[in-house]
Amino acid sequence: MHYRNLGNTGLKVPSLCLGTMTFGVADEKSFMHKVGCDEATSFAIMSAALERGLNFLDTADVYGQDGLTERVVGNWFAQEKKRDQVILATKFRFRMEPGPNGTGASRYRIIRAAEESLKRLKTDRIDLYQIHMQDVETPEEETLAALDQLVRQGKVLYIGCSNYTGYRLTDSQWISQTKNLSRFVSLQAQYSLIERSIERELVPACKRFGLGILPWSPLAGGMLTGKYHPETVPAGSRLEKWEDRWKRQNNARTWQILDAVRAIATESHSSPATVSLAWLLAKPWVTSVIFGAKSVAQLEENLRAAELTLTPDQVKRLDEASAFEVGYPYDFIERIQGRW
């Protein structure tokens, strides 16, 4: 396992991060019951990951019914007694309770959400506390001040954001600097060969302010595993339920990408999923790629991405197969600046 600094901090994190959204199954009627795993399996996956050097876990209060996933992670900490060997990231923002203050990023909401997460996770600190999505109804200064309070209390060590727009991310950095508040050190964003829109504004912003990028959905909901074809969707798969996503992704560009992924997987004697993860790891602005697993076998397959180094030619072929003017206008501006 390779380790990288989280943004401009001194914290070392592995290049792969275990996402826990599928840990814990409560409602048999829910879709997550089909793709999730029970507590025993979740424990086995986390233990196997830690044994292989993957000591970075990402979760959220909203994962699972009534904070179920955080409780599963907390139960694992209590059983294994290895909390200090793990870098723990969790998130807040979405609705956890009824009423007008049961969601959002106000000071009232953040302080309460953090305390509840600490209880469920059975820990005295959150290593990386992230706002799950920007809250346009709450001033960014209020959100940052509340997070800074948690940092000063020692309940949170680092703060990060997820699903932020470029303007909001820039605004947050300016507020933190001018108000002497703790600043975001990382950004979680949807990023994959299929979804590269963050390269337009968010990647340049993160490079400018020194934020580490943590891609989520690196396999595009399973599309980049190679099991999908234009004619059919596998029964019981995520995309069978997510019809809108299937309609968006079932196009010529997607199949062009998959053709390139499959070809390189054959060349490198690996799987399409491994190649897709390795492509993200080849990007210098990516710190750690968040992936999920519903079995130890699936965990081990995804971990192979940390061992696969794509050649410059292979990266270029994947870049070209998935390109859709992702660099404009930044590549253009950089070329002009270099020329003038």
Give the full name of the CATH homologous superfamily. NADP-dependent oxidoreductase domain
- Terminal CA distance reads 42 Å
Gross morphology: globular
* Overall number of structural domains: 1
Descriptive account of the structure:
The chain contains 14 helices and ten strands. The protein is of the alpha/beta class. It has one domain: TIM Barrel (Alpha-Beta Barrel). The strands form two sheets. It has an eight-stranded parallel beta sheet. The N and C termini lie far apart (42 Å).
List the main descriptive attributes of the protein structure presented here:
10 strands, two-stranded antiparallel sheet, TIM Barrel, 340 residues, alpha/beta
Record the SSE blueprint.
Layout: E1 3-5, E2 12-14, E3 16-19, H1 32-35, H2 39-51, E4 56-58, H3 68-80, E5 87-92, H4 107-121, E6 126-131, H5 140-152, E7 156-162, H6 166-179, E8 184-190, H7 202-209, E9 212-216, H8 238-241, H9 243-249, H10 252-267, H11 272-281, E10 289-291, H12 296-303, H13 312-322, H14 330-339
Helix pairs in contact: 2-3, 3-4, 4-5, 10-11, 10-13
